[in-house]
């Protein structure tokens, strides 16, 4: 059974007889996309873990792309009816959109087992363990025989619009140069599976010889990395023309470490 943002009002905290529960089937996977409290946020979805695998994409409360202004959302590419409906219950409806996208991307939507979404943004839940990470959506049942804990909470990020699948990489950069500057650094990954757009990984003080680590949720599965593009910008015209480079860049795939 796959639960697509199971309803919160009248169901959360009730006996398992009246709501979805892991005892309802041999394998129950759940996608939570609208789990903010009903009051004051009008969250329609359940916050509690109730399946064998519970996925909380983007933290499970606010989905990227759902905060657009109402007019742009209603007159969306999908048409006025879909846009109006999405404006009213955008987070709630993301669950089925992620599920349908997961059929097209069988290697996408990897969920990382983690204590919370805040911890997911640290190095504590990266990369996937030896047994791998389950895929949110249609292919979640590939993980059926590997579940050890009572409840498994899984976290991942998605894109703002179709195609929603993203692939997570850890990027570690050691800077080189003569003097400290302020600005930002962008990285683009090139590989056997495709190339990414530029992703900002550092902003603020850029100190040569310092090492910086950041996560990139890339819009393609890069595969074997063949090249990394490094770009920096200080946003101001500096008469001393400071130079900054990368001494080393290490890219680690979340899927296989």
TrEMBL record:
Cellular component annotations (GO), alphabetically ordered: extracellular space; neuron projection; zymogen granule membrane
Primary location: other
Keyword Lipid metabolism (UniProt): yes
Keywords associated with the record: Cell projection, Cytoplasmic vesicle, Disulfide bond, Hydrolase, Lipid degradation, Lipid metabolism, Secreted
InterPro entries from the UniProt entry: AB_hydrolase_fold (IPR029058), Lipase (IPR013818), PLAT/LH2_dom (IPR001024), PLAT/LH2_dom_sf (IPR036392), TAG_lipase (IPR000734)
Catalytic activity: 1,2-didodecanoyl-3-O-[alpha-D-galactosyl-(1->6)-beta-D-galactosyl]-sn-glycerol + H2O = dodecanoyl-3-O-[alpha-D-galactosyl-(1->6)-beta-D-galactosyl]-sn-glycerol + dodecanoate + H(+); a 1,2-diacyl-3-O-[alpha-D-galactosyl-(1->6)-beta-D-galactosyl]-sn-glycerol + H2O = acyl-3-O-[alpha-D-galactosyl-(1->6)-beta-D-galactosyl]-sn-glycerol + a fatty acid + H(+); 1,2,3-trioctanoylglycerol + H2O = dioctanoylglycerol + octanoate + H(+); 1,2-didecanoylglycerol + H2O = decanoylglycerol + decanoate + H(+)
GO molecular function: galactolipase activity; lipoprotein lipase activity
SUPFAM superfamilies named among the record's database cross-references: alpha/beta-Hydrolases, Lipase/lipooxygenase domain (PLAT/LH2 domain)
Enzyme class: hydrolase
Any one Gene Ontology BP term: lipid catabolic process
EC number: 3.1.1.26
Domain of life: Eukaryota
Alphabetized PROSITE patterns for the sequence: PLAT
Similarity section: Belongs to the AB hydrolase superfamily. Lipase family.
Protein name: Pancreatic lipase-related protein 2
Organism whose genome encodes this protein: Ardeotis kori
The encoding gene: Pnlip
